[in-house]
Amino acid sequence: MNNKFLKPLLLGVGLLSVSIDAQEISKYNYQEAFKPFFYQNNGTDYRSASGKPGHNYWQNRADYNLNITLNDQKNELTGSSEIIYTNNSYDSLEFLWLQLDQNLFSKDSRGSSLIPNTGSRYGDTSSTFDGGYKIKSVTVDGKSVKYSVYDTRMQIDLAKALKAKGGKAKIRVEYSYTVPNEGADRTGVIETKNGDIYTIAQWFPRMAVYDDIHGWNTLPYLGPGEFYLEYGDVTATITAPAHHYVVGSGELLNPKEVYSSEQLKRWDKAKNSNQTVIIRSAAEVEADSRTSSQSKTWKFKIKNTRDFAWASSSSFILDAAQINLPSGKKSLAISAYPVESDGQHAWARSTEYTKASIEHYSQQWSEYPYPTAINVAGNEGGMEYPGIVFCHMNSKGEGLWGVTDHEFGHIWFPMIVGSNERVHGWMDEGFNTFINDISTKNFNQGEYFRAQSLQRMAPIFNNDNLEPVTTQPDNMRERNIGSLLYYKPGAGLKLLRENIIGEERFDKALKTYIDYWAYKHPTPEDFFRTIENVSGEELSWFWRGWFINKWKIDQAVKEVKYKNGDYKNGINITVENIGQLPMPTTVQINFVDGTSEEVKLPIEVWKRNTEWNFHVPTIKEVSTVTVDPRGAYPDADVSNNSFKMDTKEEVSNERIDIYAFLGTFSNSKIGMEIVVKLENNELVAQASNQPAFPLTYEGKRTFSFDEGGIKIIYKEDLKIFVLKQGDQEFEFTKK
């Protein structure tokens, strides 16, 4: 799911985020970081110590035959869910649990009771909507059974226990419910000038997972925690008003019955076109009827899936193009959006984005498994389902690429690798955030890519109000969800790939994990074990510090001395690990002549040391020595990252009036103000909601803050300055 409220802001988070709250940081304890026995359980028949499924691994199966009718006058769905449930476990089952996620939208649901007065993406206390399922009947193998509904869960008591190792039951539930306009940012209805768009998800009773970890997984659906589902095949028959066009997960089985002859020609053309083909144009949308007393039935099938979603509207422009897969197979990228979303800077590029995203992930990680990939414009910020995603109809340009790529990235996590999102939300959102960065770099020669260091995220990752990453989504503050489910675990994988393991070995390990656990149910420990076994690295210190605890990174240059007091004899450098979480260390030696040299220290340096002294042979005079020179780590205190040497350079004699540089400067385009002021006779700058940082005068109206890689260059009238950070430049004007 796309966390639209907590996107990684290029400016608000990145720009000037070079300092954190002045919290006391615990001293490094190498025995604690590297203590043994990280894994508390040995391998079992079900889950190997190597991270792969065990030789007797099992999971249950749920196949669905769904029939539903949409009444667009009442916004009501009426139908039945028929489930063939197969018990592959070693246990007989006396009762079954089903998930009734729509009950979240009942006024008396547990989730509704948790919505604060200030509002939430998962609901609104001022809403009068009262939804939820109306269950008409429940049968098992054709006979009525006793069932009980507890909030978003249904328990079915069986007359006879379902046999282990292959026992089957046919469950049929007849039901109806009213579709909420705002469905916790996952489903809903939005009005357009050519008809409402229905984005339909969590719409049918689904089997709860019975596994070897918890038995029945029966956590209620409260909003933040997403889904944990069994795999199977789904056939869906959807009856909608005749003027509607429907898209759904998987293959459309009856295109000849629902499209005109001309639309069918375009449909077939799109299957073999690398360019986007219009199937239903904006002109056709405007010309077609927007009401009908008749209905039309659409039939879909998707195999080996954990869910099914669909969308319906009279307002849809439809276009498509082929997706080329590594095996030589083809899939079809489809976009459905209203005329309000049309345009080359908006949804007219949606199919291009979808095709590029799917082709990249298929080549990079594993092949896309479904016959179609559908992007639907709705009122969700972004939400993912097998073969279909919902993105906001107002998204455009870079934003539309980002949300499209993110939601289709979820096909790999958790649609293919079926982790328990209700408990381990970081295992899909964080993994997906990580692969999105690589995909964006790859798309259209980096059209939307901006390389950024992890140091910019230091104020967020080191915030003491964050819970650990492994916290269940329902147990973390809503404002922390973006950081803990998306950005911090995504950054953790980036650290592994770029700084700890290396790109080649990490990619091999992640591909192996996907291969091991495709269409299965891995746990965090299965992931940890796989990465270690494939890469050959012992990483308990990293899992312990980054994911399970809230340990901070703080590396420092403690001391630099010339050997025997003469730079021609080389230098001795002492680096220190102050934070609880160690990391491989990069030290950059900058010389007076403008050249530099790097020394890389492996993680083993910190296995029995809190500081490390080493010699660098050189005959050059040194200006500064810096750890983590490119900001690869979100270091908790960058003020100790550099050590400045005394040099023979002459100090500038330029005289300036320091008071002439003071004032409040703003950039309306990015919505930021920077105040330049004196504090304790030192010139400092402070951006909106950021700690102040010191400025050092370099001459020619230029000030710098080396630790943050920032330069502030005033123009001659001193009423405007240009702020430079990395490749970014922003002009601020004095108020």
TrEMBL record:
| Coiled-coil residues | none
Q: Its Gene Ontology molecular function terms?
A: metalloaminopeptidase activity; peptide binding; zinc ion binding
Tell me the domain of life.
Bacteria
Supply the name of the protein. M1 family metallopeptidase
Q: Which SUPFAM superfamilies match?
A: Metalloproteases ('zincins'), catalytic domain (SSF55486)
Query: Which source organism does the UniProt entry give?
Result: Faecalibacter rhinopitheci
Identify the residues that the record assigns to the Peptidase M1 membrane alanine aminopeptidase domain, covering every copy: 355-546
Spell out the Pfam families in the cross-references: Peptidase_M1
The GO biological-process annotations, alphabetized, read as: peptide catabolic process
Tell me a GO cellular component: extracellular space
